[in-house]
């Protein structure tokens, strides 16, 4: 069994149903990501099976922290190569998605993937979150690799409507980050709602999806 086939089995382990059609769409995404990465800095990972496990699977593991339903409006802050927003959109076509990425080159890649995979109801914005219309808010905000939780909470809090969720991946030292960000989380009205542990032995995998609910302004 190849490394990629072993990785596809991990999706089943996490309760993620991925049929042949979804596999083909994800693999097309990976192929384009590797092709574009030869020209612009999208990912340092060069092996398809590692992109599948480190990026696609990780992105879909955010589903363990919220309940998908039609009409949800989500924003991916600092989307980069599209993680976690693009995989979540592929898996949940009814998700209304905004990709926020200041780099024009990276945003060009995101637009290309959107056209290639015929993704509907996706908005592409080349700006920092501070540049967004303050009247526009979302049910969900995602982020990966955005830096300290305190910085993310300050940026994302303004983008969430009441009852909305901020979802972020963190490592096992997440309690220290939450403590360090406590004052900013309180100021932004963000309260820890759920912690989902993602663990596997082969390959070794351990990280946490944190969900913070917008409870006040």
Give a written overview of the molecule:
The structure is a single chain. This protein is an alpha/beta fold. The protein has one domain (3-214): Vaccinia Virus protein VP39 (Rossmann fold, 3-Layer(aba) Sandwich), CATH 3.40.50. It has eight helices and seven strands, in the order αααβαβαββαβααββ. The chain has helices at 3-13, 20-36, 48-60, 85-91, 104-116, 149-156, 174-180, 182-187; strands spanning 73-77, 96-100, 122-125, 138-143, 160-170, 190-200, 205-214. A seven-stranded mixed beta sheet has the order 3-2-1-4-5-7-6, with helices on both faces. α4 links the parallel β1 and β2 (96-100). The chain starts with a helix and ends with a strand. The model has no long low-confidence stretch (mean pLDDT 90).
Question: What percentage of the residues does DSSP assign to strands (E)?
Answer: 15-25%
CATH class: Alpha Beta
Summed up, the domain count is 1
- In CATH, the topology is named Rossmann fold
Output the helix-strand order: HHHEHEHEEHEHHEE
Helical content class: 25-40%
């Amino acid at each position: 069994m190849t490394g990629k086939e072993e990785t596809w089995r991990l999706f089943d382990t996490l309760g993620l149903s991925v049929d042949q059609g979804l596999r083909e769409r994800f693999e097309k995404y990976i192929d384009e990501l590797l092709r574009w990465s030869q020209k612009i800095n999208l990912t340092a990972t060069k092996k398809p099976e590692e992109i599948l496990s480190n990026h696609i699977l990780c992105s879909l593991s955010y589903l363990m922290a919220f309940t998908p339903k039609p009409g949800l409006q989500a924003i991916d802050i600092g989307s980069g190569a599209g993680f976690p927003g693009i995989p979540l959109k592929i898996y949940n076509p009814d998700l209304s998605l905004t990709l926020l990425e200041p780099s024009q080159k990276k945003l060009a890649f995101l637009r290309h993937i959107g056209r290639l995979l015929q993704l509907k109801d996706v908005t592409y914005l080349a700006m920092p979150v501070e540049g967004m219309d303050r009247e526009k808010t979302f049910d969900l905000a995602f982020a990966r690799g955005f830096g300290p939780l305190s910085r993310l909470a300050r940026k994302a809090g303004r983008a969430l409507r009441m009852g909305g969720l901020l979802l972020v991946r963190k490592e096992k030292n997440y309690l220290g980050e939450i403590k360090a960000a406590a004052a900013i989380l309180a100021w932004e009205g963000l309260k820890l709602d759920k912690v989902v542990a993602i663990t596997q032995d082969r390959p070794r995998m351990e990280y946490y999806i944190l969900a913070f609910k917008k409870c006040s302004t």
